[in-house]
Amino acid sequence: MHKEQCIFVAGHKGMVGSAIVQSLRSAGYKKILTRTRAELNLANQADVEAFFSDEAIDAVYLAAAKVGGIQANNNYPAEFIYQNLIIECNIIHAAHLTNVQQLLFLGSSCIYPRCAPLPIPEQALLQGRLEPTNEPYAIAKIAGIKLCESYARQYRRDYRSVMPTNLYGPNDNFHPENSHVVPALIHRLHEAKKSRAPEVVIWGTGKPMREFLHVDDMAAACLHIMELKREAYKACTDPMLSHINVGTGVDCTIQELAELIARVVGYNGRLVFDASKPDGAPRKLLDVSRVRQLGWKASISLEDGLRDTYRWYLNNLDRAETLGDRRE
């Protein structure tokens, strides 16, 4: 990577993509290429291939995806598997066809089996059954990893993959039904505070444990991994498992998370957990020893990150509450 390269960030309007663009600019990269959904339909193969042919792209950050929480994954499994498969296939193949040598694919920690050993190492991939509530999305992300591995193996492309833990931060999706747990709780607890509701009911038992990474830390990790020399990256990966976990190495229960968000928001009512709703996987903590071996470590604490996210939410209420079905 060098500062004069033309870098395409797919999904720059989303939480992760916008943070990557900001990090690239802060790092001195001058030629950052972006396209909105109206300008380029990533689900259209011909349009994507024409775009890559017209632009002199040197490197790609593939942060475009259809994302959502447990409820959205349960309600729209076909959309989650189809849209994610077609977006990653179109971009990765078009990059290859136009001789783009460097690409970073962003996956998800949901690729790992429901009962994987903890903390979850990269080698746990495909070693057991997936969590049923997000299996279609996970399968699409596994396919993205294997696409990158296959083009690297057959054509010597330098296509890398990072598997982030649960992400949150500015530009997140705060839709009350289709969002992940952190933005969903921020939105609901903020509304409960405004209405002085005596209690807030939260899906599940509150016992599952999750790891959370601020999006600015994730963007920093993406740049760090892309800027590594190929030999250094390959030295820390299995030849047949080239993805890297990215997380904090620390987790908490959903109940602890909800209580912390309530303090950040200033909500003093009761938190009631509805055990009739699905919990998802009991625990998901990533083994981040490889990324630390490569010289990167998360720097933003969960409380500081939540306060930053809530400030952004308050400053962008109109926008935040209308972010529903979208691509990262």
The major beta sheet can be summarized as: 6 strands, parallel
Number of strands: 13
**Any low-confidence stretches, pLDDT <50, length ≥5?**
324-328
Overall radius of gyration: 19 Å
Q: Helix tally?
A: 12
Protein name: GDP-L-fucose synthase
Organism: Microbulbifer rhizosphaerae
Domain NAD-dependent epimerase/dehydratase: 7-231
Function: Catalyzes the two-step NADP-dependent conversion of GDP-4-dehydro-6-deoxy-D-mannose to GDP-fucose, involving an epimerase and a reductase reaction.
Tell me the layout of helices and strands.
Elements: E1 6-10, H1 15-26, E2 31-33, H2 45-54, E3 59-62, H3 70-75, H4 77-97, E4 102-106, H5 135-155, E5 158-164, E6 166-168, H6 181-195, E7 199-203, E8 209-210, E9 212-214, H7 215-227, H8 230-235, E10 243-246, E11 252-253, H9 254-265, E12 270-274, E13 283-284, H10 289-293, H11 302-315, H12 317-320
Parallel strand pairs: 1-2, 1-3, 3-4, 4-5, 5-10, 6-9, 7-12, 8-13
Antiparallel strand pairs: 8-11
Helix pairs in contact: 1-7, 2-4, 4-5, 6-9, 6-11, 9-11
Key traits:
328 residues; alpha/beta; 13 strands; three-stranded mixed beta sheet; Rossmann fold
Description:
The protein is of the alpha/beta class. It has a domain at 6-173 and 211-250 and 285-301: Rossmann fold, CATH 3.40.50.720. Helix content is 42%, strand content 15%. It has helices at 15-26, 45-54, 70-75, 77-97, 135-155, 181-195, 215-227, 230-235, 254-265, 289-293, 302-315, 317-320; strands spanning 6-10, 31-33, 59-62, 102-106, 158-164, 166-168, 199-203, 209-210, 212-214, 243-246, 252-253, 270-274, 283-284. Strands 2-1-3-4-5-10 form a six-stranded parallel sheet, with helices on both faces. Strand 1 (6-10), helix 1 and strand 2 (31-33) form a beta-alpha-beta unit. Helix 4 (77-97) runs parallel beside helix 5 (135-155) and helix 9 crosses helix 11. The protein is globular, with a radius of gyration of 19 Å. The protein starts with 5 loop residues before the first strand and ends in an 8-residue tail after the last helix. The relative contact order is 0.16. Residues 324-328 have low confidence and may be disordered.
